[in-house]
Each structure stands twice: as structure tokens, then as C-alpha cells.
Amino acid sequence: MTPETTVTVAAALLFDRGRLLICQRSPRGPFPNQWEFPGGKVEPGEAPRDALARELAEELGITAEIGSEVWRTDHQYPGHPPVRLHFFSVRRYSGVPENRVFQEILWVSVQDLTQYDFLEANRPLVERLQSGALRLPV
Fold this sequence. Notes:
By secondary structure, the protein is α+β, with helices and mostly antiparallel strands. The protein has a single domain (about 5-130), classed as Nucleoside Triphosphate Pyrophosphohydrolase. Helices cover about 15% and strands about 35% of the residues. It contains two helices and nine strands. The chain has helices spanning about 50-60, 125-130, and strands spanning about 5-15, 20-25, 35, 40, 65, 70-75, 85-90, 90-95, 105-110. Strands 1, 2, 3, 4, 6, 7 and 9 form a seven-stranded mixed β-sheet that branches. It has a two-stranded antiparallel sheet with strand order 5-8. Strand 6 and strand 7 (about 85-90) form a beta hairpin.
């Protein structure tokens, strides 16, 4: 993938009491009703961690301490530019997450993640988390 054409996205594995926050996309727009982890596009000149902190403030109204990168993947959806996704652990944040842009947000256990229709690019991570093949930093 070339940097000129690749869209870089940063997403959060946001924890609270052993559960992860997942978000359902709007029924309007790309990939309607599918589930994803909160986050968004990295703007030109912006570091992925900074982009994620900004996106979490915009989408959920929280101030997050972005932890380590725990997963990275490249994906290409038909008819869309390639995407490079960076997933970061977030264990500390201030504020109460509020749904500002999604159809729905839910706190779910890692074991229940596979019950949701995640975006295709997120599925390998979901499967690794659910199976225990990927353990997140404490």
C-alpha cells in the first residue's frame, strides 16, 4: 500500500470494568448498521494517537489517555481506497461516553464480540480477542 492512497484510521479498544465499547454505524452512509470500535481517520500531519484522542472527544465526549498500539492491519474494501487501521488500548479516560454520532454504543464482554456484525477489517482482531490469541496489555 502506498501512503499517498492509503487512508489511515486509528481506533480504540476502550475498556471499562472488563468490557469493551463498540459502536454501530448509522443506517445511512458507508457500511450501514455494522459495528466497529470508536475512532476515525487520521488527518494529514496528525499522529494516529493524537487523531484517536481527537476522535474520542468528538464522537464520545471523553478525554482519553491513549495506550499502546495492540493491533495493526491493512484492508481494502471493494470500491474504496486501502485502509491502514491502528488499534490502541485505552484503559483510562475522563468523562462519561455519550453517543454523539453512532446508531448505538454498547459495552460488551470480549467473549460476546463475535455476536455482532463487525466491519470486515475489524473481524480478524475481534476473532483474536475472543479466542484469547491476542491478550491486551493491562
